[in-house]
């Protein structure tokens, strides 16, 4: 309180008026408000955030829960940092702070979330890595905690969500490869119960059917979503009899192409010539040769949309973001490269 008292004495106005001016209350005229703001800047006044949060009953913090570990992020995250930038761009407009909540791969995410909620240091939450059936959604909804999910789930509590267009990736990818003569098109799905794997696999099967290609379970490769996972897929492909191998592959993860390229080279298969690849864009993938044909989305824009959709569900901000309960599949752009050549003549 010493800081605000000093500011009030300097201006010769009441502490209450200074407080209301700093907090943007409508009962302070614009001239007085500007005097207070100018003096605060001149004197280097910094409000006691803990005290303000206590009085308001809010923390000014939004938590973003993500899972960590080598099996998940590989050699470093290339997805979430760009998403975080977009999210914080929106939160900064309202003096909100984004805090990353890092759940270890060795801890149950449901238990982790319950502990975080019990501590009560966030006003709202963003959850990711949504599972086919995700107890976190019902848990947060039952406690009336504002949240949004990055990813869909069969668990439906009326929550807002944003997700990537994995259906479009499957249909466009299969159609493009089929047009180049590929009939044995491999795909990656994660080991665990992440819903994106189910969504993509269902769409992949439908895309094959539309091209008159039968579904072959041996074309579905389960791996961890990282560079090592891509490398392991290449090793598994190389171990298959040549006539049974896929001739093309679609990767839904943005870093796996790096490992897949290396593994194919080790097996004597040249990406783009002997084996076609369609992946996801990433800073790492842009250094691959031949140039990767990939699906691209602005992750920063995804973060902005995620933050605005969350604020639309919070009473203090809903008037500024009249979006309702946002449920949106975010489209991705197919960027043509040189990695998805035609099927080898023996398979065409």
CATH class of the largest domain: Alpha Beta
Total number of strands: 12
Percentage of residues assigned to helices: 40-55%
Strand percentage: 15-25%
Largest sheet: 6 strands, parallel
Looking at the structure, the CATH topology of the largest domain is Rossmann fold
Question: What's this model, at a glance?
Answer:
This protein has 348 residues and is of the alpha/beta class. The protein contains 13 helices and twelve strands. The longest helix is centred in the middle third of the chain and has 16 residues, at 195-210.
Give an overview in words.
The protein contains 13 helices and twelve strands. Strand 6, helix 10 and strand 7 form a beta-alpha-beta unit. The strands form two sheets. A six-stranded parallel β-sheet has the order 2-1-3-4-5-11, with helices on both faces. It has a six-stranded mixed β-sheet with strand order 7-6-8-9-10-12, with helices on both faces. Helix 1 packs across helix 3. The chain is 41% helix and 16% strand. It folds into two domains: 136 residues, Response regulator (Rossmann fold); 132 residues, Response regulator (Rossmann fold, 3-Layer(aba) Sandwich), CATH 3.40.50. The protein is an alpha/beta fold and 348 residues long.
